[in-house]
Amino acid sequence: MLRYTFQRIVLALAIVFFAISALYTVMITLPGDPTTVLLGPRATAEIRADFRERMGLDNPVYVQIAQFWGRILTGDMGTDFNRNRPVAEAVLNALPHTMALVFGAIFWSATLGILLGAFSADNRGSWLDRISGVLSVAFIAAPSFVVALYSLLVFSVWLRWFPTIGAGEPGDIMSRLYHLALPSFAIGLAWVGYVARIVRASMLEALGENYIRTARAFGLPRRTVIYNYALRVAILPAVQVLGVGIGGMLSSAVFAEIVFSRPGLGSLIYDSVSGRNYPVVMGSMLVAIGFFVTCALIADLINAALDPRHRSKA
Amino acid sequence: MNAFRHTLLGRLLADPLAVFALAIVTLLVVSAIFADVIAPHDPTAMNLVDRFATPSTTYWMGTDNLGRDTFSRLLQGGRIALYVALTAVTISGLIGLILGMLAGFGPRWLDNALLFFFDTLRAYPTIILALALAALMPRGLGTVIIVVVITSFAEYGRVVRTQTLSLKNSEFILAERAMGASFARIVFHHILPNVLGPFFILAAMNLPVVITIEAGMSFLGIGVPPGTPSWGATLKDGFDYIRTTPWILLSGGLPLILATVGFTFLGEALRDQLDPRLRKTR
Known about the structure:
Chain A is mostly helical and about 325 residues long. Chain A is built from 13 helices and two strands. A two-stranded antiparallel ribbon of chain A has the order 1-2. Chain B starts with 7 loop residues before the first helix and ends in an 8-residue tail after the last helix. By secondary structure, chain B is mainly alpha-helical.
């Protein structure tokens, strides 16, 4: 397990390194003055000259990438020239909002999805199972940003049950959760479908295993066998898929943050792109990819810890 | 008639959900092809007198902030959605097919290198990468297609690689080799046809995803050029006027939901028919 953990961590670091380096290379080798690209059109000639020298823009590309990572490792992600603050500050202020949104969505959708999947497997072939099967696919198919827009229209604008803007009062948990409800609903809906399907399938598989038959033969109550023994194993594939799915959720979060005017990584990148604020774009990309790869890594390690068979697959 | 029941189409038509999905997809394709004929108005013609018109017999789904007919714009938007989806899926599929077979057939180091490459590309969250690239590239359908290709060919590559690897060591390929079959014969006559099944299922499942990405990018203003009647652009107009004229938003989302649900159900049905192994848990 230790060896596997080590291998996975090295692989994850390598992926983040190459993904970000590739993007940085595209940015600095693009035709045109890289100072315009990296500083934005609003930068003065003075800032440009200083920047050119400080960043070593006349060096070969690989040296520049090494210098870029050198700066990142010392915590310097550059300066947000539009608002005159360090990029690290902007990004670290935004990250918790996006994390709350993503984990909030995972929490409710995984809970509901697991229950729905277990129930469907338990009542296989019933009309409730069929309805949940069709609903799962429909949830998966519905684009999250249309769900966000429609729920904004229905629940905020028409019914006025939920707020339309912002992330709530700082320090007030209830207000935060209240503002989180609709956006996390919009992001999570598809995941109810995914999780339900996966749990249902792996549960049906688990129910055919010998140890379940043995438990039944020992006369354990059906409920205990299904919801305690089988479900425990059936959740694992869902954990894996959720870990990888964080990437998709980050994309959905961009829309949810813009539709509900919430602060976060998505809206930060969006605002930076329209303002050509490249250092912020680069910093947000780094944090977004790092966050995603870390989540996928953790899900993978949880799986490997709980199911040794998983380790040999890699 | 009996024989028809055993063809792919015949089996699909026996499944009510597949019939529903086929109907939606057919409707979308036909309305996209004949958009110019069906559209009651010019989708880009502005009519400032009729701004924000409510749905009526003249304007079935009302008009937007510039007095353009929403229904006609949505018909035209279907064309854009299908064009982007088909082009992007074809390009990324072909790249994935070639790289996946290379990984499956090539030496160990090439396989590892390509796998790492696929994993790295998967680390980019699609819309966030789209935003970063949009800052560098001109706005247009070309950019949308490039973003989709970058973020999706790795998935095809992985599936094709796995399939190739398991086929490469199967007994019938070994027998072919023993009989002196050429490399080209093995690849094009045996591996390729067997890889194509899962490949097409994946491609079908990806169509609705790509349609959503195009609409999403256009919604964010990094997709189609301004004024182009993409579904995402209509949704953006609807979002801007959500309090006063909700019908733009309501009708703008409708074709997008229809398309994604239709294509997803069709993909599911196709998978069930083409790959019976996946049916065991149903």
